[in-house]
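Example 3.
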Amino acid sequence: MTRLTAHRPVFSGSVTQTALVAVFAAISLASNYAMIGIVNVKLMDTLVFLAAFLFGLRIGVGVAVVSWGVYGFINPYGADDLILLSFLVAGECFYAITGFALRRTSLERELPVEKKYPTRTAMVPAPLRTLRARIAIRLTSFRGFVTRLISYGRLSLLFGTAGLLSTLAYDVLTNFASWLFKTPSLYSALVIGLVTGAPFALVHEVSNLFFFATIAPATIIASRRLGHG
Amino acid sequence: MASFGSYVLKSAKSSARTRFFYIGLIVVIALVLAGQLGAYIQLEGFFRTSSNGGYLTIDTLINYGNGTSRWANKTHVPPSWNFYDLTANISKVEATYTSVLNEHFIQGIDGVRGSGRSYWTLWTFCDAGRGWAASPVGADLIRLKNRMVLAWYFQAPPTSDPSTWQPPVPSATKLSSCPR
């Protein structure tokens, strides 16, 4: 029994996957309702992305569908009609696709999963701790800090850009869908949707840029260090 | 030596490529945000110039003086309207018209009628001074401008001198007149 489970991926069981979808959807819905007063600032997108990155596309899409299935109908701003809801779900799946696609890149291998913090005592033996040695320790420590900062900064930039582009795609699609049956042509629906939705899209994109650049890499690295995902 | 040289060259090339990649990401972020900001500014400009398809957008506060206030926000009105027309449109107004002055004297709004020393006072919010100023003219003579904020306040001031009146929003700044 032990051998069987040891060779099986931890989150591959259908019950576990259903539970994962439920947990992620619950967190995303709870955060959506908690942040209802801040229009277009939501953690849901980051959570869908994380679910897909850590546990695969099916989980990510599942979280997107379940979250919108509830949030689209039970919403203080009013329920969405089925057509708009289908566009919202499709748009939300962009985050899942991005998460899944990003996991397949070389980024996965470059994640700073192992902690590399050289201890001061390890670098210089005790008898050699002169002033020069101490300065050398400080310099090495500072260099290490800068290297880590650059490494995390690059990672944040990468995740932030991925989040921003997915959000742009989501906003373009959903703003277009909002005007789809109210304008004479598809082109005018797109243009009017883009212009009238611009203030909301701007808030959405800036907030997601921030969330994807901070929460996403931190969660992924933490999850890897714990041996999950 | 040659292999070391090619290694240095290769790593320099790779480092430059990496740097270009991350600079490219920053450019992408800047482009997307600039595009959205441009669309937003375009939209703002559209509302400022056409003021909602030729209509003006006005915010009106009615303070009934009994602790109840009502905001009629973003009311779209034709540019030809004056503030009396707008008030009559958003509330139930009792007024007497004086043809000589071409003015309506407001007696009551939404059933709150003037009596004794209590009457309706008229206020304008001044963007420049960020405060309320009593209107020097009656509602009929107020020419509406887009995004104007006006108020009616039912109160019993000690004198008819507007400097003794209370502004329609408690503890808001009161100005003697709107700064030009």
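Residues 2-225 of chain A form a domain with the Arp2/3 complex 21 kDa subunit ARPC3 fold (CATH 1.10.1760.20). The two ends of chain A are 22 Å apart (CA to CA).
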